[in-house]
Amino acid sequence: MSSAQAANPAFAEGAKLRVQNLNLVFTRDEKSIPVLRNISLDVSEGEFVCVVGPSGCGKSTLLNTLGGFLTPTSGSVRIDGEIVRGPDPRRIFVFQERGVFPWLTVEGNIGFGLFKLNVSERQQRVAHYINMVGLQGFEEAYPSQLSGGMKQRLEVARALAVNPDTLYLDEPFGSLDSITRHVMRGELLRIWEAERKTIVFVTHDIDEAVQLADRVVVLSDRPAAIQKIVHIDIAHPRDISSPRYLELRDGILQQIGLAHKI
Amino acid sequence: MKLLVRLRPIAFIAALLVAWQLAVNRHPGYILPGPWGVVGGITDLFRHGVLFKYIVASLFRVTWGFGLAAILAIPLGLVIGWNRRSEIAFNPLVQVLRPISPLAWIPLAILWFGVGDASSVFLIFLGCFFPLLLTAINSVRNIPTVYINAGRNFGLSSTDLVYRVLYPAVVPQLLIGLRITLGVAWLVVVAAEMIAVDSGLGFLIVDARNAGNRYDLVVAGMVIIGLIGLLLDTAMRSLEKVKSFRWAYSED
What we know:
Chain A is α/β, with parallel strands linked by helices. Chain A has helices at about 5, 60-65, 105-110, 120-130, 150-160, 180-195, 205-210, 245-255; strands at about 15-30, 30-45, 50, 75-80, 80-85, 90-95, 165-170, 200, 215-220, 225-230. Chain A has a domain at about 1-85 and about 200-260: Rossmann fold.
């Protein structure tokens, strides 16, 4: 898979996603606030990249820029060599806040992006992803009737249903309890292994990043710049008490400037 | 147990009615007619064939004033809310016109539309237009960006974005606005009918007093106004129970 390509974190040839010298400056009340500073990153096809960094450093802003919701001040984001100019159904963003539509049922949400398919194709696709995320029996339920974990699975299913080649996940499990979060990570890996999407996953949870990613991108405080890219060379399923795991995790903690003891 | 809870307001109202009747019996000096007198008044109105005529006349004016306001204010408000710039342009004007009671427009209404249905409809329209406009503006502004972004992400055209995201996202808030505004319309119609027309429940109240101090009819009119207001509110509330709207009222 991608670990061979990922070994060279600089510009690998034929990268799926290529970010070059990306800068983003917000203007608020006539003041310029630089948020992203000179970010360059290549992500290869099918790779799972996690982005971590201090709270408020601009992780989500970076992801929103990759997704085409924000326009860079300078530099570029390319997918398959093509400059990103706006959101696109080939690259689906899974939002930090609950992005499922509360006025649609589970079925309605998963089928939301499938308006180009005919009815039977759509039903088939919806049923497939309801099974994949384990929401059988809740087809007619509205999001307000679902638990937090189920809502998040619904949003992932809605994203996968349009068969995107890239998924951007913005702290998708951030508001879940730790048990549900653990289960969701397992499910996301299972889905990723089955569907081989390219994934960029923003999280503030370093353990989560080391458990999931092929590479972990560590951002600095604002304006966010890439501080380090850590290659996680542990095969899945990962033993989260192995010395190598702890070594990588502690390395990242140190990189962010956090003590190992509380 | 449930039945008991349901009966409680009815029992309370019954107790009040009894107390009212007793008080009126004890002090027959004519300050207020008793409940029996009011029932008699309603029967009188019914027998003279004006009860339904007046109710229909009032509802007719409310329907037109409220309906026209909804048809104009909601689309306009949605457009204004959607375009930040037009909101900045419209806001001061709306904020100045909004606090003017529709009753302050009565002289102008009569000047422009004469005495008749049109001026009451106009006054009700004014009373409904600004609250609805603001509701519509705010309902668009309050749509979480995440829904808009998700809609754009799935490749919706602008038209589809309006129908599939904007519209469902604002409907629940609009329904609340419509319910409150219908209550306002029902308040305004009574006042408008006291001045500009010769039918309707507001006219009934003024006419009952002017034509012989029939206070039983005055209170009868008030009771009917209250009951119909309750019915209108209940009807609007039942819309809020529609399943695909309910998310907005009971978000966890």
